[in-house]
Recover the amino acids of this structure.
């Protein structure tokens, strides 16, 4: 299976990442990716990129080194209603939003409350992707999550960094497996994301692909295989 895009990557604009945008693009080009999305942390995440960076996205060319560049942001879901911490002015400057829960920005609730938060975020027309919903520290009802993703057209991320041995997330593989099974059941689309915080991990999907094979997840529901599938995702309201 050939994957042609990676939409979850970070640069030194997020203070806990270690590579520049140029280094990430070079890595994407070397790996033969057609599309690279840059999606630094915004809002209340400690060390997040300053809003001025996102407001100046106009200087980032739509194609660099033969790779199409999409200008995104990873927002924080802040409450059980699914509100995100990105102001409308910045939302108007980005091509897509990944909505994720990060513990510094969110008070962990019950499984129902956490699921409410993700489902609420899906109702925001700027949110195209739900990021790494695979952490035991933030329990989720994956059946309900996948059903809502199918209804709204939002993609569920299969986050490769949750599957590596040194991941900060808890029981990522168990939870990602449950998410994939639920997505397969409901016909929800998924997007593999590297969540790269260094250029070496851009386009790294080894662990995610192994899990895809293990679960026998249908290729037609994987957005990364087609630029047309990506256009459909980004154009949904």
């Amino acid at each position: 299976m050939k994957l042609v895009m990676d939409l979850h990557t970070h640069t030194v604009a997020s203070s806990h990442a270690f590579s520049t945008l140029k280094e990430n693009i070079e890595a994407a080009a070397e790996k033969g990716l057609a599309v690279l999305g840059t999606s630094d942390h915004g809002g209340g995440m400690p060390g997040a990129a300053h809003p001025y960076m996102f407001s100046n996205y106009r200087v980032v060319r739509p194609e660099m080194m033969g790779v199409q560049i999409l200008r995104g942001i990873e927002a924080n879901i802040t409450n059980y209603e699914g509100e995100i911490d990105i102001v409308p002015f910045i939302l108007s400057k980005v091509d897509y939003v990944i909505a994720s829960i990060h513990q510094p920005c969110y008070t962990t609730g019950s499984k129902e409350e956490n699921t409410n938060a993700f489902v609420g975020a899906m109702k925001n027309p700027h949110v195209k992707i739900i990021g790494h919903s695979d952490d035991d520290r933030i329990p989720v009802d994956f059946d309900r999550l996948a059903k809502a993703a199918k209804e709204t057209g939002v993609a569920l991320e299969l986050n490769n960094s949750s599957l590596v041995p040194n991941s900060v997330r808890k029981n990522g593989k168990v939870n990602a497996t449950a998410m994939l099974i639920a997505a397969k059941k409901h016909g929800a689309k998924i997007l593999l994301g590297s969540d790269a915080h260094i250029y070496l991990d851009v386009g790294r999907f080894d662990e995610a692909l192994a899990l895809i094979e293990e679960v026998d997840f249908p290729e037609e529901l994987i957005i990364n295989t087609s630029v047309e599938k990506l256009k459909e995702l980004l154009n949904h309201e």
The beta strands are 5-6, 35-38, 63-64, 67-76, 96-100, 127-130, 155-159, 190-193. The chain has one domain: 5-235. The mean pLDDT is 97.
